[in-house]
Amino acid sequence: KVTHIAPADSEGKIIGESVSQEGVIAIPNKKSLGLCAGVTNAKYRTTTEVYPDSPNATPEQCNLAQVACIEGALEHLLSVL
Predict the structure, then answer these.
(1) Which of 35, 36, 41, 53 has an alpha carbon 20 to 30 Å from 29's alpha carbon atom?
(2) Comparing C-alpha atoms, which of 24, 39, 31 is closest to residue 72?
(3) Would the pTM of this model clear 0.85, i.e. be above it?
(4) What is the pLDDT of residues 24-62, one digit of tens each?
């Protein structure tokens, strides 16, 4: 664990999207949310949303969280290939 996990709102959503597991939303296949995953039309894509302006996370924690996400993705790929 590097930083806190964003809690869902009272409707069980984060940024208006349904939560698939704690702190995780399934990003719709559209660009309207303005998230990084909307930049490409690749079949599989992901984004990490860690905000350094959060009162609960430092800029260093945000950088470490980004690295942890990339490492986790690479470890997963290596385990299934």
Answers:
(1) 53
(2) 24
(3) no
(4) 887 766 677 777 777 777 777 776 767 666 778 888 888
